[in-house]
Specification:
The chain is an alpha/beta fold and 235 residues long. The protein has seven helices and ten strands. The C terminus is likely disordered. The protein binds adenosine-5'-triphosphate. One of its GO terms (molecular function) is ATP binding. This is ABC transporter ATP-binding protein.
């Protein structure tokens, strides 16, 4: 499990008078489950892009355990992300021409590695998320099933952190609840830190902590918002 430490982060775009994201300091404990909320345009996706290394910042430090990903060039950030981050996105990011199993194995295939030694874990994860037909084409799956494929895929390489951007937003209430349960349970079982951007109150209230962004700034976490996770404190 990975902890995050951000210092003096500022993300600016040309033509904008103020940074779209400005975080003087933020600490996320290893193994904690943290929600990020805020109105549209408040910087949530920008934060996801920065902490996963999808985008680079030249201002500030973004340290996961001992690695400041802000200092890494793109190829090393990509390698670091493949090794350490499980990503779950609102619109699944699955490949239509592939089966469910092939999609789960994709992170290994994309690193030009043999998938043979990962098939067992891929099948176990798929069963864990409740998918029985591993060879089913993605195009024939329901949205809830697709997101469960994405959750299994995110966990394939035993990431230190799972980052989910609106993972339940395009699902109906029932499928959203299943996906929320799976994210919380699997992050705990697999010992991964969980960072979830969400407007889904039922998901947010089950996290250990909620960070609220307004206009690119973290507004104070309300007193009492920090709760001990099930099984005791995790710090
Ligand atoms: N490449 C860019 N160039 C200029 N402005 C940008 C760029 N990327 C993001 N922004 C601006 O940064 C701000 C934060 O955007 P961001 O997508 O992080 O917000 P968000 O909280 O994820 O919004 P939403 O909930 O609507 O997805 C917005 O005002 C957006 O217009």
């Amino acid at each position: 499990m990975l902890g995050l430490s951000i210092e003096r982060l500022a993300i600016s775009f040309p033509g904008l008078p103020t940074p779209v994201l400005s975080i003087p300091a933020l600490e996320i404990a290893p193994g904690s489950r943290v929600a990020v909320t805020g109105p549209s345009g408040s910087g949530k996706s920008t934060l996801v892009n920065i902490v996963t290394g999808l985008e680079r910042t030249t201002q500030g430090a973004v340290r996961w355990r001992d690695t400041d990903i802000a200092t890494l060039p793109e190829s090393k950030r990509d390698a670091w992300r493949a090794e350490n981050v499980g990503l779950v996105m609102q619109d699944f990011h699955l490949f239509a021409g592939l089966s469910a199993l092939e999609n789960v194995l994709l992170p290994v295939r994309l690193r030009a590695r043999s998938v043979a030694s990962h098939i067992g874990r891929a099948r176990e994860l798929m069963s864990r998320v409740g998918l029985a037909r591993h060879d089913q084409s993605i195009t024939t799956m329901s949205r809830g099933e697709m997101q469960r494929v994405a959750v299994a895929r995110a966990l394939l390489r035993k990431p230190g952190v799972i980052v989910a951007d609106e993972p339940t937003a395009s699902l109906d209430a029932e499928s959203g609840a299943v996906v929320a349960d799976l994210l919380l349970e699997l992050a705990s079982e697999e010992g991964a830190t969980l960072l979830v951007v969400s407007h889904d109150a039922r998901l947010v209230e089950r996290m250990d902590r909620c960070i609220r962004l307004v206009a690119g700034r973290i507004v104070a976490e309300p007193a009492g918002e920090l709760v001990a996770p099930a099984g005791g404190p995790r710090a």
